[in-house]
Prior knowledge:
Distance between the termini: 38 Å
Radius of gyration: 17 Å
InterPro entries: IolE/XylAMocC-like (IPR050312), Xyl_isomerase-like_sf (IPR036237), Xyl_isomerase-like_TIM-brl (IPR013022)
Domain Xylose isomerase-like TIM barrel: 56-278
Transmembrane segments: 7-25
Oligomer: single chain
Protein name: Xylose isomerase-like TIM barrel domain-containing protein
Number of strands: 12
Pfam family, one: AP_endonuc_2
CATH topology: TIM Barrel
Low-confidence stretches: 1-33
Amino acid sequence: MTTRRNFLVKSGALAVGTMILPSWITYNSSVKLGNIGVQLYTFRDEMTKDAIGTLKKIADLGFKQIESARSEKGHYYGLTPFSIKKVCDDLGMNLRSGHVHIDKNWKKTVEEAAASGQEYLICSTMPSRGQTVDNYKSVAEVFNKAGEDCKKHNIKFGYHNHAYEFEMHKNQVLYDVLMDYTNPDLVHMELDLGWVIVGGKDPIDYFKKYPGRFPLWHLKDMDMIKKESTEFGKGGLDISKMLQYSKESGLKYVFIEQEEYEVSPLESMKHNLKYLQELG
């Protein structure tokens, strides 16, 4: 199974202390200062060892928005929903979203997310595998129901793609089936731009075909040879061009996620934020 990968863009300004807000952020009203965050899976090992200390380092980079990910210590790296909220509050950050599975503990997952103050709860992998149109229609029904469950707790439900959703069956792109059979009011898509291009598609085509359906992005550059994430500017994603379509996307928050790195997650994030700054 493909591993979950999230990629976020931060308003390049917010990062690393004294960085200046890039012009494309101020020009594009869809992406505002403070709406760029990081997916904590990027720091998965560090979060498992020392969640609070790692969150402090992330805050020092300038990030204001956080997206958590399911880990061996639970959804909050051994912290309770209340304690991670307090830590983030104290550091001037928001736990904005979280990656989870739809499983037998789904009810508890939603209740925890509500307790943490999250705005979004994102399913990070298909609840049932089967690369067929019928399965994707069935999954769409599951997602609509999950959206109803979340809405009762004032949370927005969504789904994060990988590359396999862009395979075809019966002359239909399976991701398109998912889009066509989910209720836009209940299912808010988090588009991983890196995995879209690995899947052979162009994110901009989706912004145009399904305007307003993608309030969350994982901004992630991809090494198209190795099919894995890399630092910004070293892969096949035209980041500057993507950002020009944030309004069509309905973008609210961008999360940077990088799963592979040459040195360390911290150094990769510094590189990525510097890259975003220089786009301005």
